[in-house]
Design goal:
387 residues, CBS-domain, six-stranded mixed β-sheet, 2 domains, 38% helix, alpha/beta, single chain, Rossmann fold, 17 helices
């Protein structure tokens, strides 16, 4: 969808902002450009919509050399979101959002209907917010309107320059979540500029780590964190890159241990016997369909004896995550509930438990898989969990 071929930008004073960049962004892919201030990442992005013209090289969007396209027509086909949002203060939220469709000739009713649809997509009820003015919105709400406006004419490409940098950390995380949800629905081709490696890792399908005017590494978040290509990249992502990688490593069924299972409708005495047989201090309580109903300790079922039922003794399982969630989420749940493990579910169906040892193993397998260019289940090493 976007292709750079040996693109450079040199300013009249001799400053080389971008030096012979060559890379591609696939259709529907979200690529984050990350690096320190002045490294050329914003210049790179602004050359895509010709707000900055390259000195050398060629840029293609959807197979078309943008040098052959009228700049105004090009920009109306590319969504653009900036940190300062840039809403028109004298226009309502609905009219702000409908700006580009109106400029390209849509009828007013169609443009406003599209604007209402987009406001709803970004989590702003058009009936509640459509008639408001930008000054009546919070910073996070204005940023959402900026994203909606950029998408209003349904552009195939979206450029985002520090889109969540002007809000506090809590709102930033909420906006990131909302944007990821939206991107999963609309699948735009996105270039997103940020100086924050954690944001780059969280949002990007791939990351371009910039040095001075050059890309030092262009790879998946997991590979950048697990196998930095250069000492510069290793230094930029930080010594805690292992912790950052937790956020991009998914929990897979193969990562799980299988604890002792007792059934919701069985007797406490029977459950106690099974727990003793397997030398287990607790068991996971499931119903006949394999859905999770909680957990129970051996002392409780042993004390209840023949007259007790597991279903009457089960405790609610508070420490759980869905399969496919990042390891970081599981680690956070462990800490929040002071738990030695978390249950992993597929819907309500119980798949197993993730222990600290298995979490560490999953992280190691992920790093080694990227380094070896193989799937995680093909990586072999001595496991702490099996010791």
């Amino acid at each position: 969808m976007i292709r750079f071929e040996q693109v450079s930008k040199r300013y009249p004073d001799g400053t080389m902002a971008v030096d012979e960049l060559s890379f591609e962004v696939g259709e529907g892919e979200l690529v984050t450009l990350v690096g320190p201030s002045g490294c050329g990442k914003t210049t790179t992005m602004m050359m895509v919509n010709r707000l900055i013209e390259p000195t050398a090289g060629r840029i293609f969007v959807n197979g078309e050399n943008i040098a052959d396209v009228d700049p105004v027509r090009l920009r109306r086909r590319i969504g653009y979101v900036i940190q300062q949002v840039g809403l028109f203060p004298h226009r309502t939220v609905l009219d702000n959002t409908a700006t580009v469709p109106a400029l390209i000739g849509w009828k007013k009713a169609k443009a406003r209907a599209r604007a209402a649809e987009l406001l709803d997509l970004v989590g702003l009820d058009p009936k509640m917010y459509g008639s408001r003015y930008p000054e009546q919105l919070s910073g996070g709400q204005r940023q959402r309107v900026g994203v909606a406006r950029a998408l209003a004419a349904d552009p195939p490409v979206l450029l985002m320059d520090e889109p969540f940098g002007a809000v506090d950390p809590v709102v930033r995380e909420q906006l990131q979540d909302e944007f990821l949800r939206m991107q999963a629905a609309v699948r735009k081709t996105v270039l997103l500029v940020t100086h924050d490696i954690e944001e780059a890792v969280r949002l990007g399908d791939r990351i371009a780590v910039y040095g001075q005017g050059r890309i030092e590494q262009f790879d998946t978040p997991g590979a950048v964190l697990g196998t930095p290509a250069t000492p510069y990249v290793a230094g930029f992502v930080g010594a805690d890159r292992g912790l950052k990688r937790l956020s991009v490593t998914e929990i897979l069924p193969d990562d799980l241990e299988q604890p002792t299972v007792v059934r919701l409708d069985e007797s406490a005495a029977h459950a106690a016997a099974r727990l003793r047989e397997e030398d287990a201090r607790w068991g996971v309580v499931l119903d006949a369909d394999g859905d999770l109903h909680g957990w129970v300790g051996i002392d409780e079922v042993a004390l209840a004896g023949e007259g007790g039922k597991v279903g009457d003794l089960a405790h609610r399982m508070r420490a759980w995550v869905p399969v496919g969630a990042p390891l970081k989420q599981a680690f956070g749940v462990m800490l929040q509930h002071d738990a030695g493990w978390v249950a992993v579910l597929d819907g309500a169906r119980f798949l197993g438990v993730l222990t600290p040892a298995k979490l560490h193993e999953a992280l190691r397998r992920s790093v080694d898989a990227d380094a070896q260019g193989v799937a995680r289940d093909q990586v072999e090493f001595d496991s702490v969990a099996d010791a």
